[in-house]
Amino acid sequence: MAALLLLPLACAVVASLALLVAEADDVPADDDLAAACAHAARAAGDDGAIVVLPPWTLRPLAALGPAAARVVGGDGPAAALLPGRFPRVVAVVEPDAAPWLPALAGLGAPRSAQRFGAVDVLVFDGGGPARFDLLTALPGARVDVDGRPCTTPLERGAVRGHGCEGDDAGLRVTREHALVSESGRLVVRVPEPRPGARVALRFDDVALGDTLVVAAGHTRAGAERGRAMIVDVVVDDAVVASLRRAPSFFVEPSRAALRAAFVRPPAEDGEGFRATVIDTRRLGGGAHRLALVVRAAADDGAHTTVDHELALDAYVPGPGGAR
Q: What CATH number belongs to 132-316?
């Protein structure tokens, strides 16, 4: 019932965002884009996130300079991971971005909007910071394969993670950019386990709130050649959710020609990398043990290669971003 009551508000937000950019139908001038990106960087601050739309555009990344490190994905799967994660979310919106604007509706109406020629900059209250963020917490995780710890620290540029030894040598769980939709994004990459094996990421003292958001899906290579995998979400040794992800890859529905180019279309159980919101109110507040355990689906063929990966992301929304 609550969702139905919120539907008119969501529609109004989408309509308002579309009107903001409806008049901007020409190619942005370099000076306008530079001014827009400078404003976006100031508005985001050191702890905010920046979204560029359309998500495949590259010009703003160059114009943002060092602030490009704060850019997060802006297509549907990525935008679903924004509410409650950052204190502020700033969108740099170029012309022809209308198909991607509905994905930002979860942030509500922008608190400010400013136009620089053909570029709009929208500033949203993000509702964060998150109580727990997988991407920042991964270096401190305990990673194991069937209980065998992976203790080799990995650090190369922006890549962080854990390497395994012995029989599991070559298996790496890392935080790095991966192609999980039309645009790459920062995720935790987990190789496809051997049949019957489980790769676990374990965290202590995780402060839970009303919800836990877990996103999972295949990378581009895994979508074409991998197999279904399952993520068990375990809190204090009890499985609170099991997320099955068939090999599929998200492409914006409006880009029909690109969707048709894929060998393996989206599967029946979902459109590739996507978020699931888990109700954790029954678990109570305070600190909990959290584990994300990845295993291959037993009914989906033989093991292939560790080049096929599952991409993970997860966070506990802050108090201003309840889902």
A: 2.60.120
What's the rounded Cα separation, in Å, for the pair 54 and 74? 8
Chain CA centroid to CA 323, Å: 15
Both tokens of 144, joined, read: 């194991």
Closest Cα to residue 194, out of 171, 214, 174? 171
Q: With bands split at pLDDT 50, 70 and 90, how would you rate the model's confidence at 192? A: confident
Paired with 267 in beta bridges are: 270
pLDDT tens profile 121-152? 999 999 999 999 999 999 999 999 999 999 99
Reply yes or no on whether the pLDDT at 51 is more than 70.
Answer: yes
- CA dist 220 and 276 (Å) reads 20
Q: Radius of gyration over alpha carbons of the chain, in Å?
A: 20
Q: Is the separation of the CB atoms in 107 and 65 below 8 Å?
A: no
Please count the CA atoms within 13 angstroms of the CA of 253 that sit on its side-chain side: 7
Say which residues have a Cβ less than 8 Å from residue 309's Cβ, sequence separation at least 6. Answer: 178, 189, 190, 191, 192, 218, 219, 221, 222, 226
| Residue 28: alpha-carbon gap to chain centroid | 28
Domain positions in the chain: 2-125, 132-316
Containing H/E element for 153? strand 152-156
Is 90 exceeded by the pLDDT of residue 85?
Answer: yes
Coil, strand or helix: which one is 244? strand
Residue 227 has pLDDT above 50, yes or no: yes
Which pTM value belongs to this model?
0.84
Q: How far is CA 126 from CA 1, 130, 216, 278, in A?
A: 25, 10, 22, 19
Q: Which of these ranges, 29-43, 267-281, 309-323, has the smallest mean pLDDT?
A: 267-281
**Does pLDDT of 86 surpass 70?**
yes
104 contacts: CB under 8 Å, gap ≥ 6: 17, 51, 74, 79, 82, 89, 91, 122, 124
